[in-house]
Amino acid sequence: MLDAATSHHLLGCSPETSVVMLGTATYPCLGPFSVWSPSMLADLIYVCICVCIYIYNIYIFFFFLTGHAGNACLEMVISMWKNLLQTMKERILQQRRMSVYNQAHGYEEELVKKQLQQFAGGSINLTKEDSGIGILTLNNPKIMNAFTGTMMLELQERVTELENWKDGKGLIIYGAGNTFCSGSDLNVVKAISNSQDGMNMCMFMQNTLTRLMRLPLITVALVQGKAIGGGAELITACDFRLMTPGSEIRFVHKLMGLVPGWGGGARLVRIVGSRAALKLLSGATRVDPERALHLGLSEETLSSSDEAGALEEARAWLSQYTEGPASVIRATKEMVAAGRELLLEAALRTEKDIFGTLWGGPANLQALATRPKHK
Ligand SMILES: CC[C@H](C(=O)O)C(=O)SCCNC(=O)CCNC(=O)[C@H](O)C(C)(C)COP(=O)(O)OP(=O)(O)OC[C@H]1O[C@@H](n2cnc3c(N)ncnc32)[C@H](O)[C@@H]1OP(=O)(O)O
Fold first, then answer.
1. Which of 203, 204, 206, 228 gets mutated to test ligand 1 (max ligand atoms within 8 A of its CB)?
2. 334 within 8 A of 342, measured Cβ to Cβ
3. Dist CA 321 CA 107 (whole Å)
């Protein structure tokens, strides 16, 4: 369950309240700025300067047009300025609210990013289809789509892109070359084998995967071949998992003298229960499609083993749940995410707020006019 501050990520909580709660944790005097990284502040300052120049131009234009800079013009400029700043502030705070770690937890994102940047290779690709389904590909097939540092950074960028995709309804994540993902690139693991670097990488990935889990999209991991270590952790950040024949999920962490660190342990407990999770983790058990179905870790075993066929089947499976207006699908996911993470009263209040965004809205009015019965 989320604590009070973290619970503000969901709808219905005013950004201002979250600002105060997150901000006061470290530097009360700085308010919201205490949770912003240097690069975000630099971005903000840059945009502010651009906006100032833009507004100045408008002001000059009006001045020449009317011969004087009247009150109405000045008010308009001030109001535009305020709106722009507010929108930017909400966007940045939205990202912060969706994350688990900030500076208050000793997490220095810019430093972590710099370090990850040193381990290059592979890519994370995103295609946004007109149907509202996104396809995210883990692409490093030479090493079974293991995550290099730059892939971790790209995953974060793609998640940001998905957060800003307002027409999106669903997402399928799969690996290139008929296999899902074999976790962290072992070269990275070896190069950063000290506790602090490990925890930094772990906080970075937990933030990204938590934001992935909280996307207002219905997400599916398509498991072909192997989902190993961090790959097994990644699939637990999706709402659903589909497996192809012969595929395997395996939390190998124990064999490496570790436990999951990307949030996969906590999420696995919530998916399969603590007893089954303990067995899978402490036994480093190979989970085949049949066992995954039995545990509730997978929804279905697909019939195709090849990439194109499996992807088509996954699309068809997901379409059962993504048909209809984006506003309703997205609200449904947000409501379930609140139920999954918040204490009951907070979840109920969130449900009321989400309900309020739909009641009397276009999708609701059209349904009342055209489909009053559901036979
Ligand atoms: C906290 C844990 C941490 C995290 O969550 O951040 C991790 O994820 S640590 C990484 C955990 N994963 C592993 O330890 C996987 C290690 N690899 C294997 O056990 C096998 O390669 C396996 C079972 C994934 C696949 O075996 P298979 O026989 O089918 O293929 P190959 O072994 O021949 O692999 C092909 C090729 O890929 C390279 N490879 C595979 N996984 C990784 C990896 N994680 N990092 C770097 N390289 C990887 C493997 O070495 C082969 O390359 P080659 O040049 O042909 O030797």
1. 228
2. no
3. 37
The H-or-E segment that residue 221 falls in is strand 218-223
Would you state the structure tokens that stand for residue 3, as one six-digit string? 């604590």
Which run of H or E residues covers position 226? Answer: strand 226-228
Note the pLDDT tens digit of each residue in 313-347: 999 999 999 999 999 999 999 999 999 999 999 99
Find, among 62, 44, 41, 40, the residue nearest to 52 by Cα: 44
Q: 119 CB less than 6 Å from ligand 1?
A: no
Our answer on whether the CB atom of 248 is closer than 6 Å to any ligand 1 atom is: no
Beta strand pairing call for 248-250 and 286-287: antiparallel
Distance 182 CA to ligand 1 centre (A): 5
Burial class of 347 by CB neighbour count within 10 A (0 to 12, 13 to 18, 19+): buried
Here the tokens at position 312 are: 């088509």
- State ipTM: 0.98
Q: How many CB atoms lie within 10 A of CB 286?
A: 14
**What contacts 247, CB < 8 A, 6 or more positions away?**
180, 223, 224, 225, 226, 227, 288, 289
Residue 87: both structure tokens together: 């929108």
Q: Residue 293 is encoded by which pair of tokens?
A: 């179905």
User: Rounded to 5 degrees, what are φ and ψ at 350?
Assistant: -65, -40
